[in-house]
Specification:
- By secondary structure, the protein is of the alpha/beta class.
- The chain folds into two domains: about 5-150 and about 200-299, 4-Layer Sandwich (Metallo-beta-lactamase, Chain A); about 155-195, no CATH class.
- The protein has helices at about 40-45, 70-80, 95-105, 160-165, 170-180, 190-195, 215-220, 235-240, 245-255, 275-280, and strands at about 5-10, 25-30, 30-35, 55-60, 85-90, 110-115, 125-130, 130-140, 145-150, 155-160, 180-185, 185-190, 195-200, 200-205, 225-230, 260-265, 290, 295-299.
- The strands form four sheets. Strands 6-5-4-3-2-1-18 form a seven-stranded mixed β-sheet. A seven-stranded mixed β-sheet has the order 7-8-9-14-15-16-17.
- The longest helix has 11 residues, at about 95-105.
Length: about 300
């Protein structure tokens, strides 16, 4: 197991007794990534048994309070744990948001690096790491809003049949690492000839948005897609307030080609979203599930 994705909040607009406001924690090889930080996320991280000190990056989709109200609390907790630095990626305005709090209420010792992103209609790179990339794309909400993808970089693995066919031994692999090739029976064999590329894990988060092709551009072929599903089938409300319906998600699901689609951001009008489950069952969409707080997915 390399990591896990934990849902920390699955309600829209305001928390309910059963569901907190938006937040998703991704743990990958000791590094922590937080996608959105609604009210109460600080406590949700603790309740989930996650290591808040591992948090290195925070990605804010947009500045509505149900996605940002918990941010200052998380920063203060990190500061109290002597974390030296945290990096925050967001649409424009996050700097002013934090400055207001820091100037008037609390000045942390932790270094808070903010990067305000220029939105684009094609997936663009937010963070390029040795082992992964974070991509983003503009969404279609009432304010500037961004969807994010965590994509593990592909790796190469040896093809067992090729190894057996060439009868390679331990010393051959040592030479291969040193020189980039080996000689076998008068032939030069490169690593590419005896390995194959393996696709890395892909997680995508689609927060508040109305219909847009950018969803598919970013989320296609994800292993896990967490996507907002504020309404069941109320198309007029979805268009007015910039959200998605289950009907639209069912429509685009085949093109998304995601291994698992997890619905979140349910309107408080649905005390129990059992009708969502009934519609999913009727559509025979076995890869779509209803998200709940503290639901975890391992990879």
């Amino acid at each position: 197991m390399k990591g896990k994705v934990v849902l920390l909040g699955t309600s829209s607009a305001m928390p309910t007794p059963e569901r907190n406001n938006s937040g998703i924690f991704l743990q990958y090889k000791g590094k922590g990534f937080l996608f959105d930080c609604g009210e109460g996320i600080n406590r949700q991280i603790m309740k989930a048994g996650l290591n808040i000190y591992s948090l290195d990056y925070i990605f804010i989709s947009h500045l509505h309070t149900d996605h940002t109200l918990g941010l200052t609390g998380v920063i203060e907790t990190l500061d109290m744990h002597d974390k030296s630095r945290i990096k925050i990626f967001s649409p424009s305005g996050i700097g002013d948001f934090l400055k207001c709090f820091f100037d008037r209420f609390y000045t942390p010792e932790i270094k808070v690096d903010t990067k305000e992103l220029k939105l684009e209609d094609r997936p663009f790179t937010v963070l390029d790491h040795l082992e992964f990339n974070i991509f983003a794309v503009r969404l279609n909400h009432l304010v500037e809003c961004i969807g994010f993808s965590f994509v593990e970089k592909p790796k190469r693995r040896f093809i067992k049949e090729k190894i057996e066919e060439l009868k390679l031994k331990t010393e051959d692999f040592k030479i291969l690492r040193e020189k980039g090739y080996i000689k076998k029976d008068g032939k030069i064999i490169t690593e590419e000839e005896i390995t194959e590329e393996v696709k890395g894990f892909k997680f995508t988060y689609i927060p508040d948005t109305y219909k847009t092709d950018n969803i598919i551009k970013l989320a296609k072929d994800s292993d896990i897609l967490v996507i907002e599903c504020t309404y069941l089938d109320e198309e007029e409300k979805a268009k007015k307030y910039g959200h998605l319906t289950l009907e639209y998600i069912l429509e685009i699901a085949p093109e998304l080609n995601c291994r698992k689609i997890v619905l979140t951001h349910f309107s408080k009008r649905y005390k129990n979203p059992e009708k969502f489950g009934e519609r999913i069952k009727k559509a025979d969409a076995g890869n779509i599930i209803l998200g709940e707080d503290f639901m975890s997915f391992y990879f």
